[in-house]
Input
Amino acid sequence: MATLHGKTPDLLRRWNGPLTAELLQSPGAFGLGNLPVNAQPDATSTSICGFCSTGCQLSLHLSKGEAAGLTPTPDYPVNLGMACPKGWEALAVLDDPSRATHPLLRDDKGRARRADWHRAATTFRDRFRNILQKHGRESVAFLSTGQIATEEMAFLGAFAKFGMGLLHGDGNTRQCMATSVVSYKESFGFDAPPYTYADFEESDVIVLVGSNLCIAHPILWQRVMRNKRSPEIIVIDPRRTETAQAATWHVPVRSKGDLSLLLSLAHCLVRDGSLDRRFLSEHTTGFEEFADFVSDYAPASCEEATGLRAHEIESLARRISKPGKRVSWWWTMGVNQSHEGVRTAQAIINLALMTGNIGKPGTGANSITGQCNAMGSRLFSNTTSLLGGHDFANADHRRKVANLLEIPEERIPDRPSLAYDQIVDGIEQGRIRGLWVIATNPAHSWIHQGRLRNILDKLEFLVVQDMYMDTETARHADLLLPAAAWGEKAGTFINSERRIGTIKQVHRAPGQALSDFRIIQLLATTWGCDDLFRKWTTPEAVFHILQRCSAGQPCDITGIAGYEDLDRAGGIQWPFPAGGPPLQRERRLFEDGQFYHPDGRARFRFDPPGSVPEPVCEEFPFTLLTGRGSSAQWHTETRTSKSAVLRKLHPDALILELHPADARLLGIHTNDRVTVRSRRGELTATAFPTPTMRRGEVFLPMHDSSTNRLTLQSVDPFSRQPAYKACAVALKWTPS
Ligand SMILES: Nc1nc2c(c(=O)[nH]1)N[C@H]1C(S)=C(S)[C@@H](COP(=O)(O)OP(=O)(O)OC[C@H]3O[C@@H](n4cnc5c(=O)[nH]c(N)nc54)[C@H](O)[C@@H]3O)O[C@H]1N2
Ligand SMILES: Nc1nc2c(c(=O)[nH]1)N[C@H]1C(S)=C(S)[C@@H](COP(=O)(O)OP(=O)(O)OC[C@H]3O[C@@H](n4cnc5c(=O)[nH]c(N)nc54)[C@H](O)[C@@H]3O)O[C@H]1N2
Ligand code: SF4
Ligand SMILES: [Mo]
Output
């Protein structure tokens, strides 16, 4: 509460209490709410970066209470003074004419008109309530995100499910992390990435599967570079990516050949007896069945599926099982975004278990998250799991959380939400008629986007809550709620290694934009359920509520005193229970070999590989891979396109990468225009023939809004995560 800028304490007290539409109309309300009240003029503040899940800390240099510049924090245990271009440009993207500054409400003629918050909140209430009354609680859904503060996503999920009474809400983490969540839950008994970043530095063999670290997590690559053990760095990726080129060995697996490859590696380990027998017998169940199952996967029989020679598979098997060597496995979207993502991720976990490479320095079966707060959304968004990693379907869990929150138990739904793709189907079939989208841009990022865009227009009422007013999704909105962005609000994020860190308000939100926290508070008050959220007054108050919800769970964080404690400690990794061991800066899980299943043992989970949902054929002879294009581009580019510096760091054109031999056959040269067509749509791109591609495979970055016109909606059956990285396309040279 340092600088109140002359406002009366009384107004501040009111501001910290429940937010009402009336209060928002009081003079000066926005001035006060959007001033950086926790920032001392001419001082330095800190925030965790709001782009990727690495979770670098940035030091924000303040002038008159607002950030005038930033530098990466030298002694933060994650980034050690480093940042990638997006982090350096984090402030630059905040000031832009396309920021949403006022609520916008579509009138009868389809024109978006400015509205005040009172009108916006009452319209939200009346329109959604109307739909719910007519069509029942399953007729309205929300789509949340991994890119707002934990306290905001918890408030959102709690208001939507306990206050509005909705049953269905999912988030963009489904596009990204659902596979890891399900694989960890099944294998370990809880969604628990086991590692700490120091493991990158302490490993002898680092295996990256479907992970382009140099582009997607550049500061984690810097951590790899600090490894003094001369590690072998193996990249398993169909493309010879920037990371593969910098590695010691690239394994150019055929796209979606991973499961066969990983099972074949397991076959070799069983055959050669390269196993940690003691670990297997003391800490796992199901190994014997698995050993039996992999007997069919001799390298010679996996050549076709993997696109690799048997001797390459044998060589890889030897490298990952050298006695006494610390092997760490890391995976990202090349694994998760697949029709068989869960079993592929579990095939990695199985290899780590077989070789005892878990719970020790430099080891682990490690899923790297993507968005700045993907881990926060996995534990606290109240979408697929109940607050704190609890289970909606478990009556004891519902009772526990209801007691902690002091709300009636029957407010908590007794089943989990439909998944994202099922919500989309529900809209298409007319069962879902109202949708609230927060901090995600599905009209660009969702798979088979043409279908999605048509479906959005079928909705009776679409509310979009975003920091910009012109995103592909915002353009379809009936009501746009203007959100303050990273830098304009407080809260916490949880990074890939489970480290919780704070974000702070150091910039004034434009116009009448409010933090997501304040928007939800206003909507809850207007809805008339603010009684349920009496104690949810500030982000830090909510943090304490969530700590209580975590008590006794694997993610117990009851030992954290508060935000200041997090800042003092350099972030704190979960778990950190009250009364537990003293804090250490770097901590990994499973050091005692105890997993979270009731018997304390990890499970072997496996299935045979299936066929890809859309195989290539004569008409569509190429497999399209998609992914990150450069370290300067973030997803749908609503933010990164606003920085002149970042725009200079990648090509303007949409680049299609393809193998030179394929290009030659089609008469395509560098910089030629090429039409790329799938069964669902087409686009035009600029050709870049490059030997980094495999024959028969082509690559497009996901940052262009046309890429997902081509992709095929298909999902992993266990996680319902979309398979963005393989569909069949045709190429045609096109005159420019
Ligand atoms: N600059 C930047 N950084 C980001 C993001 C961003 O948009 N821009 N997004 C963040 C988010 S949310 C995420 S989830 C992460 C994603 O981080 P990554 O997963 O590392 O990024 P991608 O490029 O999507 O996919 C990684 C690799 O998977 C490979 N791949 C495709 N198919 C297969 C396959 O069948 N097998 C294997 N083994 N590999 C395959 C692709 O060739 C690609 O190189 O990045 C985060 N960081
Ligand atoms: N083809 C293909 N498609 C993909 C992928 C792929 O590899 N290939 N990857 C998938 C993955 S892993 C992911 S994570 C998704 C990402 O997909 P999206 O989540 O749709 O992408 P973003 O551009 O990050 O969208 C975030 C939105 O939130 C807004 N925003 C930013 N900060 C705030 C805030 O504080 N409050 C509010 N209210 N709004 C805010 C931004 O302006 C933006 O509109 O894309 C997926 N789509
Ligand atoms: S690596 Fe990720 S967290 Fe670090 S500065 Fe870059 S975008 Fe931000
Ligand atoms: Mo992601």
